[in-house]
Amino acid sequence: MKIAVFPGSFDPITIGHVDLVKRALPLFDRIIVAVGINSTKKYLFPLEQRLEWLRQVFATYPTVGVDYFENLTAHYCQRIGARYLLRGLRNASDFDYEKTISQLNQIVGGGIETVFLIAQPEFSHISSTIVREIIVGGADATPFIPPEIHIKL
Ligand code: ADP
């Protein structure tokens, strides 16, 4: 069984994340969208809220599960029997960052392979960071977030 973990903060989930998961469906038997909890990071939305949105968005995808984990992504993968990580690449700075993490995960995770999908041009400008700025700035973020979720602050 080919299980992939799609780790991220999903603070909040964007249509870029959803597109990535959709495109990865044919590659894996199961994809676990997993919120990584990093105690040093500050989040805009609480974990429960982010998980609830993920569950809503992927409710109709039979091979997609939603979960969360603390500490190392590689150890979480080993715990659930996932041999693949899924990540998206939007630009060169994503590449530089992801390259290091992927090499580390392969060592720490005992051979875990990271599968990268290049963002589609229509989504490559979308990031949770930008969406948070739009929300905090009081503008309308609906063009960037899945239609299932309604953001109230
Ligand atoms: P992190 O906090 O780990 O950066 P994010 O929730 O911001 O987590 O992103 C998780 C993953 O989704 C990353 O691999 C990122 O490259 C990918 N991603 C984010 N936005 C997009 C997008 N618009 N298109 C494709 N991939 C994306």
Descriptive report:
The protein has a single domain (3-144), classed as HUPs (Rossmann fold, 3-Layer(aba) Sandwich). Helices cover 36% and strands 22% of the residues. It is built from five helices and five strands; from the N terminus they run βαβαβαβαβα. It has helices at residues 15-24, 47-57, 73-80, 92-108, 128-136, and strands at 3-8, 30-37, 64-70, 84-89, 113-118. It has a five-stranded parallel sheet, with helices on both faces. It is globular, with a radius of gyration of 15 Å. The site of adenosine-5'-diphosphate (ADP) has 17 residues, from helix 1 and strand 4. Adenosine-5'-diphosphate (ADP) is lined by residues 8-10, 14, 16-17, 20, 87-88, 90, 94, 119, 123-124, 126-128.
Q: Brief description of this entry?
A:
By secondary structure, the protein is α/β, with parallel strands linked by helices.
List the helices and strands and how they pair.
Layout: E1 3-8, H1 15-24, E2 30-37, H2 47-57, E3 64-70, H3 73-80, E4 84-89, H4 92-108, E5 113-118, H5 128-136
Parallel strand pairs: 1-2, 1-4, 2-3, 4-5
The structure holds adenosine-5'-diphosphate (ADP).
Adenosine-5'-diphosphate is lined by residues 8-10, 14, 16-17, 20, 87-88, 90, 94, 119, 123-124, 126-128.
